[in-house]
User: Which sequence fits this backbone?
């Protein structure tokens, strides 16, 4: 029964899966490296089973395509890296954090962030 449900989900949500596959997940070392990369970094602190996080995946994928080399959009799974999530003051999932090219946090949003408001928030932070 479980395999049938999984197969049905895979068939019903190809866009969700392709977007999730297109937005890499970082571990703590990868996050540290990304923040030292000299480029804008947008990180969603969430989890693979979090419903709002799943709903964010297509938006994150679209943002990655839109910004291309100007910004890296990444996932960070809080449930797999609790200490690092605490170090970034993550209190709820999803939390989207925008880091400027120097690695400084310049914007934060908690919860589902629709694309239009996400783009406004990025522009206000300086990423256009």
Assistant:
């Amino acid at each position: 029964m479980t395999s049938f449900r999984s197969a049905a989900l895979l068939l019903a949500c190809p866009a969700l899966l392709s977007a999730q596959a297109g937005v890499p997940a970082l571990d703590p070392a990868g996050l540290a490296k990304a923040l030292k990369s000299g480029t804008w970094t947008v990180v969603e602190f969430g989890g693979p089973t979090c419903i709002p996080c799943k709903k964010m995946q297509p938006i994150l994928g679209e943002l990655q395509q839109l910004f291309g080399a100007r910004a890296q959009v990444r996932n960070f799974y809080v449930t797999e890296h609790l200490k690092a999530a605490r170090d970034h003051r993550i209190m709820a999932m999803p939390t989207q954090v925008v880091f400027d090219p120097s690695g400084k946090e310049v914007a934060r949003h908690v919860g589902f962030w629709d694309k239009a408001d996400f783009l406004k928030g990025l522009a206000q932070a300086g990423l256009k």
